[in-house]
């Protein structure tokens, strides 16, 4: 089984400026697609437009057709906490498809399962607004997973997570994607995480796609230098994983300004 996300001439403008420019890519899943690039490269803009929150030119097709709202789940970078809801109620909200909604036993089961997958079941009855930032971030991912989307769009979902929870989230996400034949497009700043968990890396700079392909093909010293304006070393850990070590900014070569 495979699933294909195809971008053709995908462009997005904001306030009359072209922010994402003519992206062409064919991404075969299931698996995680890491969108990497410096601040301002256009990662969030790309995800918001893929989610239908911003107008775009060109096309983004999932298995040959425009994704419908039932196919999609989008988690923006800054997600606000609803006042007074418990963790379980928050995740249940992810199941709302219609305005007239009744909670079925299947909804509760699915919400509890999503919490268990992300090791959050013990927090089910706690108020969301009294949890830590990282705990809230994981609850919002669970809320998106419970929709069982075929295209997940997650904007820096690991930004508030400790090392342990980063691993849990990305491992469980990979398992979900394989089980559901789904694709997750995930904005990530940590290139070592991208190298470890992504099937495909989209590397962006100033709204353009610099490179798209396997982590080993995309995350090279040369591309990192060009895109981020830093010298970097790529090491292989004893586990076989690639680790990207930033050594320092490049000065005096015209490559200092990353975005
Ligand atoms: N609402 C907006 N109106 C106009 N321009 C915007 C708006 N939001 C973002 N931009 C511009 O779009 C460009 C890309 O921003 P975007 O947030 O997509 O980048 P990013 O790669 O996600 O950055 P970061 O890593 O900092 O989150 C930036 O130059 C930014 O100033």
TrEMBL record:
InterPro entries: AAA+_ATPase (IPR003593), ABC_transporter-like_ATP-bd (IPR003439), P-loop_NTPase (IPR027417). It comes from the Bacteria. GO terms for molecular function: ATP binding; ATP hydrolysis activity. Keywords: ATP-binding, Nucleotide-binding, Translocase, Transport. Pfam families: ABC_tran. Residues 5-231 form the ABC transporter domain. Part of the ABC transporter complex HmuTUV involved in hemin import. Responsible for energy coupling to the transport system. This is Iron complex transport system ATP-binding protein. It comes from Tistlia consotensis USBA 355.
């Amino acid at each position: 089984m495979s699933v294909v996300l195809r971008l053709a001439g995908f462009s997005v403008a904001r306030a009359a400026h072209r922010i994402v420019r003519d992206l062409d890519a064919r991404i075969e899943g299931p698996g995680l697609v890491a969108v990497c690039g410096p601040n301002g490269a256009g990662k969030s803009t790309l995800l918001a437009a893929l989610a239908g929150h911003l107008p775009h030119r060109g096309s983004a097709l999932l298995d040959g057709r425009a994704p419908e709202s039932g196919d999609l789940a989008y988690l923006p970078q800054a997600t606000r906490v609803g006042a007074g809801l418990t963790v379980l109620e928050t995740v249940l909200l992810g199941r709302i498809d219609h305005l007239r909604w009744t909670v079925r036993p299947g909804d509760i089961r699915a919400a509890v399962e999503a919490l268990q997958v992300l090791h959050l079941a013990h927090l089910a009855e706690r108020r969301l607004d009294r949890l830590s930032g990282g705990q809230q971030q994981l609850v919002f991912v669970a809320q998106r997973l419970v929709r069982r989307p075929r295209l997940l769009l997650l904007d820096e979902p690991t930004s508030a997570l400790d090392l342990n929870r980063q691993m849990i989230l990305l491992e469980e996400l990979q398992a979900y994607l394989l089980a559901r034949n789904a694709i997750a497009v995930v904005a990530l700043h940590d290139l070592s995480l991208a190298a470890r968990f992504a099937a495909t890396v989209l590397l962006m700079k100033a709204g353009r796609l610099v490179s798209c392909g396997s982590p080993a093909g995309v995350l090279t010293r040369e591309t990192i230098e060009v895109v981020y304006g830093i010298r970097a070393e790529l090491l292989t850990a004893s586990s076989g994983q690639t680790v990207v070590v930033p050594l320092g900014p490049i000065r005096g070569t015209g490559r200092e300004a990353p975005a």
